Amino acid sequence: MKNTEILQTGESASAPTRCQATPSNRILVVDDDADIRQVNVEVLRRFGYQTDTAADGAAAWERLHAQSYDLLITDNNMPKLSGFELVKKVRSAQLTLPVILATRALPAEELDRNPWLQPVATLVKPFSSGQLLETVNEVLAQPTAPAVSRERLPVGAKGAERFCEV
User: Fold this and answer.
1) Average pLDDT of each block of 10 consecutive residues along the chain (166 residues)?
2) What is the dihedral of CA 12, 22, 120, 81, to 10 degrees?
């Protein structure tokens, strides 16, 4: 696929500069819209990021049990488990995983009531691939990005003794 097919209208294919992604930059992209998910993944992979996807928050939660990630990019309005509910689960599990909320409508009321759930960044849809890359690069450049410190997430029911890295 050509660069111009992925970049949104009004951007030149050469606009974003190549980032310094490393193999440790693993990103989970969560969106119930398969087209948006695919475009975001293609842009991120082109610039060196390793990506996995999930079609809803419940599938993302399962991925978080199976794989370590440096960043979570999630839509909010999804079936089964919303992005906001996913962030609640991530924060309740005391994960240091940074979250970018990419959505058409921010859940401002919920975020006001639960300031501890604030994502590190937000992207209001529709956003350009340049905005996506800039936001991802900024978030991963922050010293609190979990590439240095990984948490462990319990797998299975309450009290399960089995753990996996996240």
Assistant:
1) 35 42 79 97 96 98 94 95 93 91 83 84 94 96 54 32 26
2) 90
